[in-house]
Specification:
Blueprint lengths: L1 H12 L4 H24 L7 H8 L7 H36 L11 H13 L15 H28 L3 H24 L3 H11 L8 H20 L1 H8 L2 H6 L4 H23 L5 H13 L4 H25 L8 H20 L8
């Protein structure tokens, strides 16, 4: 009798058990809701969680200023952080599968640098002078930023894809990705030399990364772009699973590899490019989040990884935003510094783990 209970308990705790996965998904979902509410409640002015919930439900708050703070400042920031974490996580997952490289990501392979170049070409060469990067731009200009950043990201990713066909060594591929990143950074540096002081200052502040600069007007552009790209990524789940087993196996299943690659490149570029356009080049999240989800669920099935990466990425982005605001009183830390502190231990763990394992993904 004891043996049967022990076996049943082990079956329930097995990460591959559907019940276990459902419980983990529920825990992640609850954590996401809690992180979202905390991001709305905490800041220079602390608002009780019950008041936050009342305000979100359309009820009257104890103080009118709390309603103004949440709807004017904190809710757009929290929504942006949620979208950014989800987008960068899924983009990193797509690239890691496409390149069969555990260290692939928007930042490591130069995708964020390509997106930054696209934004720099729009912002630094514009004729009008604005005090902030996106403050006075309209909907059309916002779409222009998204398109420019996505094209910049797609250009670098496309070059990396061409190189990956000839280079088999993953470390060589990563070095080339860094070189592409340095090249695009060099072009941006040249553009900075010919730009006005106001635009240089705006661009430098943008490179620090922030979720606070996105307005409701810009969210009208960002939300549908990210949601459509995430939906495209979900539709690619079976194709990504097939690519894990090799291109020959994928072709045997009737998969058109070239079209699939183009679809993945398009989705990953838009996800990374759109977030980079509005929030700046956010580092490390795209590399770290997929590995966290693989470890938690002990699977490489993208039908599980894509939704889990979406939620886990949003959670980490929200906590990174909270930490950047609360770590130092009366000062907001650069978001890139916070995400680097989160991502560096994970990337280090991946590199050390690969020394003892030859296969990918685990």
């Amino acid at each position: 009798m004891l043996s049967k209970k022990y076996k049943f308990k082990n079956a329930r705790l097995n990460p591959k058990n559907p019940v276990f996965k459902s419980i983990i998904f529920l825990i992640i979902l609850i954590s996401l809701i809690l992180a979202f509410l905390l991001d709305l409640a905490l800041g220079s002015v602390d608002i009780p969680l019950n008041e936050v919930v009342k305000i979100l439900l359309g009820q009257e708050a104890e103080k009118l200023t709390w309603t103004h703070i949440i709807f004017k400042f904190r809710l757009p920031k929290a929504l942006t952080a949620t979208l950014a974490g989800a987008a960068l996580g899924v983009s990193g997952l797509q690239m890691q599968t496409l390149f069969k490289n555990p260290l692939a990501g928007p930042f490591v392979l130069g995708i964020s640098s390509g997106a930054s170049l696209g934004v720099a070409l729009v912002v630094l060469t514009a004729s009008a002078t604005t005090p902030t990067l996106l403050a006075d731009l309209g909907i059309i200009s916002d779409f222009g930023l998204v398109i420019a950043a996505s094209l910049g990201a797609a250009s670098v990713l496309g070059m990396m894809l061409v190189v990956s066909r000839r280079v088999q060594d993953t470390m060589t591929l990563l070095i080339l990705g860094l070189l592409f990143g340095y090249a695009t950074s060099a072009i941006v540096s040249i553009l900075l030399q010919f730009s006005s002081k106001e635009r240089i200052q705006s661009y430098i502040m943008w490179t620090f990364g922030s979720f606070a600069g996105v307005t409701w007007k810009q969210l009208v552009v960002l939300i549908p772009v990210i949601l459509l790209s995430l939906f495209l990524a979900v539709l690619q789940s079976k194709s990504l699973n097939a690519l894990l087993l090799g291109e020959s196996y994928a072709r045997s299943l009737g998969l058109t590899v070239q079209k699939t690659r183009f679809s993945i490149i398009t989705s990953a570029s838009i996800l990374a490019g759109a977030i980079t356009a509005f929030c700046g080049p956010i580092a490390f999240l795209g590399v770290a989040i997929p590995h966290l989800c693989r470890s938690v669920f002990s699977t490489s099935d993208h039908r599980i990884l894509i939704p889990s990466v979406t939620m886990m990425g949003a959670i980490l982005a929200l906590f990174a935003d909270l930490f950047s605001q609360l770590a130092v009183s009366q000062m907001v830390l650069p978001l890139n510094a916070v995400t680097a502190l989160i991502g560096t231990p994970v990337v280090t763990w991946v590199i050390l783990r690969r020394n003892s394992q030859k296969s990918f993904p685990s």
